[in-house]
Design brief:
Blueprint (H helix, E strand, L loop, with lengths): L4 H9 L6 E7 L14 E8 L2 E5 L9 E4 L3 E6 L7 E7 L7 E5 L2 H12 L3 H37 L10 E3 L2 E3 L5 H6 L20 H5 L12 H34 L2
Antiparallel strand pairs: 1-2, 1-7, 2-3, 3-4, 5-6, 6-7, 8-9
């Protein structure tokens, strides 16, 4: 792989945020100068994207080495020096030595291994695919939820069929649910009360009027006095009939008493 040294150096020293950084001990590797002794060299490492830069110190202005983290795996390893928390970068290419590094502690070792393992383009591609799959699942779930909500809303907006079986009580007599008191008299598309009703519905003080096809409820029943006069018609008729019978009985008695 050919890289432009100036461009790489400019990117390494730019103000772009680093994914990870810290001191590591190195024992050589691809692009790293060999160490004169077995203790390794302590350098300042900066990870930006899939590029791992090493510097002589924190204030170094020129990178010592560059490792492109593609086609590689990061694994724990044994360091040449005891009590070192080492890990190695292994490349799939044949004949390439592993890059051996060591941190100062276990927490730093785990942080570096995690950051280096997630730095490759291949890992990012897998993450993007997984996110796309989750996004598609979320869209399908949202579409199904909207479809179900629309079906529920449509079912609620459907007109309910009138219930003609169960009557309701209105002003002392039974009325079908699909009829109002006014419509019962005026016949606005509804059958009058008292017609074609079963016998058990013709109960109460208005049974005679209901049997004749009349209704005690009229558009003028806006006050109690009107209702009282309407219901009193039956009583008046019965009283008149009783008086007529009483007068007839008295007349027949007088005729019998006369010699």
């Amino acid at each position: 792989m050919k890289l432009n040294k100036r461009s790489v150096a400019h990117y390494a020293l730019s103000d772009s945020p680093a994914d990870h950084m810290g001191f590591l001990r190195t024992w050589g590797g691809p692009g790293t100068p060999p160490t004169p002794s077995g203790t390794g060299r302590k350098c300042w490492f900066v990870l930006k994207g899939n590029l791992l830069f090493s510097f002589e110190s924190r204030e170094g202005r020129a990178p010592l080495s560059l490792v492109v983290l593609e086609g590689c795996t990061v694994e724990l390893a044994e360091a040449p020096v005891p009590e070192e928390f080492a890990f190695a970068i292994h490349f799939d290419a044949p004949g390439v030595r592993p890059h051996l590094l060591a941190a100062d502690g276990q927490a730093a070792q785990e942080a570096w291994v995690k950051a280096l393992s997630r730095a490759s383009f291949g890992y990012m591609r897998l993450v993007v695919r997984e996110l796309e799959s989750q996004l598609q699942d979320a869209r399908r779930s949202l579409a199904l939820h909207r479809c179900a909500s629309q079906k529920v809303g449509a079912s609620r907006r459907k007109p309910q069929a009138p219930d003609r079986i169960s009557p309701s009580l209105e002003n002392g007599h039974f009325l079908p649910r699909d009829c109002s008191p006014v419509d019962a008299v005026e016949g606005g598309g509804c059958r009058p009360v008292g017609r074609d009703l079963p016998e058990w519905e013709l109960q109460g003080p208005t049974s005679l009027l209901l049997g004749r096809g009349q209704s005690p409820v009229s558009p003028e029943t806006s006050c109690f006095s009107t209702l009282h006069d309407w219901y009193g018609q039956e009583i008046v008729q019965l009283r008149q009939g009783w008086q007529q019978r009483a007068q007839g009985n008295q007349a027949s008695c007088k005729q019998q008493d006369e010699p």
